[in-house]
Structures are given as C-alpha cells and as structure tokens.
Amino acid sequence: MAERPADPRRSDPRRSEQRRNDQRRLDQPRDARRSLRPRRQPDPERFGRFAETFARFMGTAQFLGYMTALIAVWLLWNVPVGPDRPRFDEYPFIFLTLILSLQASYAAPLILLAQNRQEARDRVTREQERDATVQSHADMEFLAREVASLRLGLGEVATRDFLRSELRNLVETLESSGEEDEDEST
Fold this sequence. Notes:
Elements: H1 8-11, H2 13-24, H3 46-58, H4 61-78, H5 94-155, H6 160-185
Helix pairs in contact: 3-5
C-alpha cells in the first residue's frame, strides 16, 4: 500500500502559527461564521399584523361568547356545590382571577399596538388627502383663471348678433345714402 504524502500545511508548524496570527488580526474582517439557521430577514411587520388580528378578534361577539362560555364552565365546575369531583381551582375563583388578569395584561399592549398602527395609517391617509385637496384647489384656481381669460377673450370677439346689427346699420346707411343720391340727382 502506498503512503500518502504528508500535507505541507499540517506538517509545517510555522504555517499553522501564521494562520493563527492571521485569524487574530483586528484590521481585517473575519470570515462569515457558518450557521445552520437560514439567513432570511425577519418581517418587522409580522408582530404588528398579529396584534391587529388579535385586537380585531377580541372586539367581536364571537370572542365574548367564547369567554363567557369558558367562565361559565369554570364556575360550574369549580363551585363546591353538587357531587364531589376533582376541581382544578380548589380556592374558588383565585385561579380564574389570575387567568383573567394574565389575559388582560397581554391584551392591553396588543390592543395599544394595533391602535398605534391604525393611527399611523390614518395619519398617512390624512396627509395624502390633504395633498390631494391642495392639488385640487390649485387645479380649480387654474381652471377659473382660464375660464375668466376665455370670457375676456370672447368679449373682444364679434358675435353673430353684433355682426347682424352692424350689417343692418351698414345696409341702412347705404340705403339712406342711396336715396339721398337719387334725390340729389333728380
């Protein structure tokens, strides 16, 4: 069996020392570390969308129905009236109070986050509507000036009635001067 030649990088202690020194240098960037996790950017809006969905669900009759049913079942199961059965809230309503407080402590910040996001969307919508209103106002002022200039321009244009009256006056003048000429020639 043939022997493999030794790897010159492993056998040379000076080379491995150089490699260690190169890794310790602070003026050069390190190689990127390899990771088994996928490298994708987290969606910064994901939690906000979750908060809005949660807040919308909490404001529905369906949520109130579920919550009422859960509390009714909890009360009926843990009230010490009736046959003996295992209860998960031995001290009446202590655990229920804790669960409702926990639910409220998570619900309040999520609702506030959803309201803040809605307020930001409303602010952007208001700004866009304000810009559109300003543009519409400027367009209307421009059109009003154009209509006024057209009216002024039309005031200087001879209309059909004006031409007819001028022609009548001219015809009358010609007829009267023609009659005067005939009177003088006779």
